[in-house]
Amino acid sequence: KQLRYGRRLKGPILVDPREFTKQLAGDGIGLQVERQKALLRIPRDAENTHFLIVGDTGSGKSTIIRQILCQVAEREHSAIVYDPACEFVRQFYSPDRGDVVLNPLDERCPYWNPSAELKRKAEAKALAVSLFQPGGNSIRFFVESPQKIFAHLLSFLPTPTELVDWMSHPEEIDRRVKDTELAALIDPKAPQQRTGVLGSLNMVADSFRLLPTEAEGNGFWTATQWAEKRKGWVFITSRPALREALRPVISLWLDILVLRLLTEPHPNQRPAWFVID
Fold it and tell me: How far apart are CA 51 and CA 12, in angstroms?
């Protein structure tokens, strides 16, 4: 056989699902392959090394994600689904399971307060970094300065409404940073510098302005509490028209969830799956 076909040195081999599952001892997530009866199964102990699903439009990426989520539901595991096209929330959202939809324009969205996410005030800087991220040609000063001021404002533990009010009024920010090293970052004697920093804060205020108030929200939710109990699924959705406006808040939600899940798991704590579409 080697004389006829040559001896394989390295490189991928095309096999059918049955052979794939046999060679890798697949006993975990199974994927249906077109025109094949047997499922292509991934080893269960390899599931946490991540899946990357890549393909053109219409090639079946969403179909594979649905197959995975169906099996996650059967196992009664938790899931965090970033679903900008609202494809999966329609099929998998279950209020009986305790699911949450994080989208300010969705009536199912709960009241959320970033101050309630802080276990200690020092974490405010980590949250600020999620909100103010460098763009293509960003000057470092105009990224880090809003981060520092936002973290300082958050240390007062304001409600979202108070936070929006503070970030929208320069005189209130001046009052809060007075007699601190942060005051130099928005010194009126440097108008261009001050305008750039305050402008970044105001843009984030626009995102927070969309959040429901405590009276409008469907209950109360924090990523910190959810990561502890992992009850229900979390769907993060958005509409194309407001996706750019919501980007800072979506980034913050995802980063907080990652931060809280990167802790030592408790005994018998259910696994959590991240699905970023």
Answer: 18
C-alpha to C-alpha distance for 216 and 113, rounded to whole angstroms:
13
* Position 188, amino acid: P
What percentage of the chain reaches a pLDDT higher than 70?
Answer: 99
Contact 236, 196 (CB under 8 A): no
Cβ count within 10 A of residue 138: 13
pLDDT score of 241: 83
Residues 31-76 have pLDDT tens digits of: 998 888 899 999 999 998 999 999 999 899 999 999 999 999 999 9
Residue 264 clears pLDDT 80, i.e. is over it: no
Q: How far apart are CA 275 and CA 121, in angstroms?
A: 30
Measured between alpha carbons, how far apart are the two ends of the chain, in Å? 44
CA–chain centroid gap for 196, Å, is 27
Q: Residue 136 pLDDT more than 70?
A: no
Q: Give, in degrees to the nearest 5, the angle at Cα 46 between 41 and 51.
A: 75
3-state SS, residue 240: helix
Closest of 260, 256, 251, 275 to residue 134, by C-alpha: 251
Looking at residue 227, its pLDDT comes to: 92
pLDDT in tens, 216-258: 999 999 999 999 999 999 999 988 888 888 999 999 999 999 9
Q: Which two tokens stand for residue 144?
A: 């880090």
Distance separating alpha carbons of residues 196 and 62, to the nearest angstrom = 41
Residue 272: which H helix or E strand, with range? strand 272-276
Query: What tokens appear for 241 in the block?
Result: 């028209």
